[in-house]
Design brief:
heterodimer; A: 221 residues; mainly alpha; 3-stranded antiparallel β-sheet; two-stranded antiparallel sheet; elongated; B: 553 residues; two-stranded antiparallel ribbon; P-type potassium transmembrane transporter activity (chain B); transport (chain B); KdpA (chain B); membrane (chain B); transmembrane (chain B)
């Protein structure tokens, strides 16, 4: 008994020492080396691909954000600022639920199934809103024109992109609200449409933040 | 070009990339585990550890070493989380509660990486980088070590010796996982994944007001999360988060990292047993199932059945614009047919049948191609079962790779294939029967049941992905899923090593005209058939209540 107990203790000791040594290698040296190289050679990417406009940082080209009017009294959620291109819905973004010290951006999806009542209601409402907001005096949006990404939340809730179809759908509204010719806004969208990487990877997309920065410049100029 | 054609091209690109890596990586790994030489850094590690890397272990000693190392890993990770609030570099996050700390420790040591916490709101730099990411390496290295021990059991004869666990562990980490991780992490950073130790900080927004981010060693953790088929995301949104997976290219690259070692290990296996064709037969079964599942996933996701998806005009809920349906489907299948569980899109919002495909993928035992190491040993166990069934049909004593599959061997293999379904079905039944656990469901009806079935399937098979509507941060789920993960990882490992020991002792049986040729396509077909029949019979009733009921409604 005594020998087997001491054998077990010796084995656990060896396990602990192995774990500690591997922790130093994989948990300290490895991340520090990678961080060192990344910060030395690729600081822009390693720190979140921030983009600036008008001399100040306005976000990351990789992280979506909202373009809303200031919250009015009695409102739970602010109304969208229709002057700007709108991103996808983000119904999955939770409130700060664990940690009370910070109000962090919490990424996440809605996790609602195709037959879930909430999701059916959200999609139906979003579709009506997209049709209503984007129809102008001279341009009527049909429900069948609305692409799926315009009415669904993404996986991260931070999707920086919309489909080219959704961007094109917003062109008439944007032109009207910013007093710009439709053709100029159409060209803006076309210029900011990214095709599939190498022609086949992923899907075509438009980065909303970059598009809105360009729109701001266009409206100013 | 349409989305489906783009999806097919992405799949072809993956196949080409995996094909190019297959021979060099598979042969390299065979050399790593067969070599007599120790690198200087390895000698230094053995010195610090006090372990003799040259003692040959029989199976009981190998099992003890695996269990001791893993037990220490669970305790260490548990304590690290329990004292997080007092450690520097914790971003001000509090210590983790006991039940969640147990669940997370069990999860990362068992190579599962089920997460009942929100990464960006719970874990600081020390726990993420110094605790969780370390287990991403070593739990993967343990899986590879066990697989190699089983392969040695087939390759060796008239000895009970299976190699040395400490040497296998250290070599897998230092010579295989680390070098690929350093390169892979830099590729990810170059494409936009973040890598810093910034605290929680505010970044301006276009219309004013701040966004709050926490920095972190994300790229370095992301790469081993995929390469080690771990799957625990730095952020709650996992690989859907743009800081973890910024572009369509990184998405394919991450899928490649998930698959490259499990597929290449079949070459390592062929090398070590002295017949590359035996490895190809196993590879054939894995690849067929993988491609078949992707095709099925495309079919159901592009058809987008389900009321909400019909109204929306596509199954894009929970999917990122940059990946779309095509690439998200490849990721979902690859992550659930391996033990990874990372997600670039949220499985709970897939179509009913699409969600069912992810569940069935895990229920096959994660062997196509499976987790690093666990995929190979799981598939070899199924090969033993297939050989046994074939032997029954013709009335011959079954043999595999020149070893007789006798009573002891088939008992061990049978225990292996029974343990996971038992855990999944018993825990699911209890969770459904008790009054409180169903309160955790976000969705109701068939999909609510699927959330719980998914949770235990994912835990016991060491996957780690979720139908994440389930609020799993309750004492019941933290405890039971924690147990399912530990038992689902380590009981099968004990059976595998016992089998390896008994195979290694046998003298080889000469090949005769009556021997089943296990290197032929016929056997690949038999293996696939056996797999599908065993899993389907086990899980069909449960699947009928959940994803099938939802998908066929």
């Amino acid at each position: 008994m005594a020998t087997s107990a001491s054998g077990t203790a010796r084995l656990l000791g060896a396990g602990l020492r192995a774990l500690l040594v591997l922790t130093v290698i994989c948990g300290v040296l490895y991340p520090l080396v990678v961080t060192g190289i990344a910060q030395g050679l690729l600081p822009h990417q390693a720190n979140g691909s921030e983009i600036s406009s008008g001399g100040r940082v306005v976000g990351s080209s990789l992280i979506g954000q909202r373009y809303d009017l200031p919250l009015k009294k009695g409102q739970d959620t602010p109304a969208p600022a229709l002057k700007w291109f709108q991103p996808r819905p983000s119904n999955g973004l939770g409130e700060n639920s664990v940690n009370t010290q910070y109000h962090l951006l919490l990424s996440g999806a809605t996790n609602r199934a195709g037959d879930n009542k909430d999701l059916i209601a959200w999609v139906t409402d979003a579709k009506k809103a997209v049709v209503r907001d984007n129809s102008t005096a001279t341009y009527q949006v049909r429900p069948s024109d609305v692409p799926a990404d315009a009415v669904t939340s993404s996986g991260s809730g931070l999707d920086p992109d919309i489909s080219p179809q959704y961007a094109q759908l917003q062109v008439h509204r944007i032109a009207e609200r910013n007093h710009l010719p439709v053709a100029r806004v159409e060209k803006l969208v076309a210029d900011h449409t990214e095709g599939r990487q190498l022609g086949f990877m992923g899907e075509p997309r438009v980065n909303v933040l970059e598009l809105n920065i360009a729109l701001q410049d266009l409206a100013k100029g | 070009m349409g989305p489906l054609s783009a999806g097919v091209l992405q799949l072809l690109a993956l196949v080409v990339a995996l094909g190019l890596a297959y021979r060099p990586l598979g042969d390299y790994m065979a050399r790593v585990y067969s070599s007599d030489r120790h690198l200087r850094v390895e000698k230094w590690i053995y010195k610090a550890t006090g372990a003799d890397p040259d003692t040959q272990m029989r199976w009981p000693a190998y099992v003890r070493a695996v269990l001791a190392f893993s037990l220490v890993g669970v305790l260490f990770l548990y304590l690290l989380q329990r004292v997080q609030g007092h450690l520097p570099g914790s971003l001000g996050f509090a210590s983790i509660d006991p039940d969640q700390a147990f669940n997370t420790a069990a999860s990362f040591v068992a190579n599962t990486n089920w997460q009942s916490y929100y990464g960006e709101q719970a874990m600081g730099h020390v726990v993420q980088t110094g605790g969780l990411a370390v287990q991403n390496f070593v739990s993967a290295a343990v899986g590879m070590a066990v697989a190699v021990a089983l392969v040695r059991g087939f390759a060796r004869s008239r000895t009970g010796e299976l190699g040395n666990f400490w040497s296998d562990l250290v070599r897998g980490t230092v010579r295989i996982l680390l070098p690929i991780s350093v390169l892979g992490a830099l590729v990810l950073v170059a494409c936009g994944a973040i890598q810093n130790f910034a605290g929680i900080h505010e970044v301006g927004q276009f219309l004013g007001g701040p966004q709050q981010w926490n920095g972190g060693a994300v790229a370095s953790q992301e790469v081993i999360k995929e390469l080690g088929t771990n799957g625990g995301g730095y952020f709650n949104a996992n690989s859907a988060h743009p800081f973890e997976n910024p572009t369509p290219f990184t998405n394919l690259f991450e899928i490649f990292l998930i698959l490259v070692i499990p597929f290449a290990l079949t070459r390592t296996f062929g090398r070590m047993v002295g017949s590359l064709k035996q490895g190809y037969a196993i590879l054939g079964a894995m690849a067929t199932i993988w491609v078949g599942f992707i095709a099925l996933m495309w079919w159901t996701e592009f058809a987008h059945h389900g009321p909400a998806f019909q109204i929306a005009g596509g199954a894009l809920e929970g999917k990122e614009t940059r990946f779309g349906v095509g690439a998200s489907s490849i990721f979902a299948v690859s992550t659930t047919l391996t033990s990874t569980g990372a997600v670039d899109s949220f499985h709970s919002s897939f179509t009913g049948l699409g969600g069912g495909i992810t569940i069935l993928g895990m229920q096959l035992g994660e062997i196509a191609p499976g987790g690093v190491g666990s995929g190979l040993y799981g598939m070899l166990i199924m090969a033993v079962i297939a050989v046994f069934i074939a032997g029954l049909m013709v009335g011959r004593t079954p043999e595999y790779l020149g070893k007789k599959i006798g009573t002891r061997e088939i008992k061990l293999a049978a225990c292996y294939i029974l343990i996971t379904p038992a855990l999944v079905l018993v825990f699911t039944a209890f969770a459904m029967a008790l009054p409180t656990p169903p309160h955790s469901m976000t969705n109701s009806g068939a999909h609510g049941f699927s959330e719980i079935l998914y949770a235990y399937t994912s835990g016991a098979n060491n996957n780690g992905s979720a139908f994440a509507g389930l609020n799993a941060d309750t004492q019941w789920f933290n405890t039971t899923i924690g147990l399912a993960m530990l038992l689902g990882r380590f009981l099968p490992i004990v059976f595998v090593l016992a089998l390896a020991g008994s195979l290694a002792q046998q003298r080889p049986v000469p090949v005769t005209a009556g021997t089943l040729r296990t290197e032929k396509p016929l056997f690949t077909g038999m293996l696939i058939g056996t797999l599908l029949i065993v899993s389907a019979l086990t899980y069909f009733p449960a699947l009928a209540l959940g994803p099938l009921a939802e998908g066929l409604a």
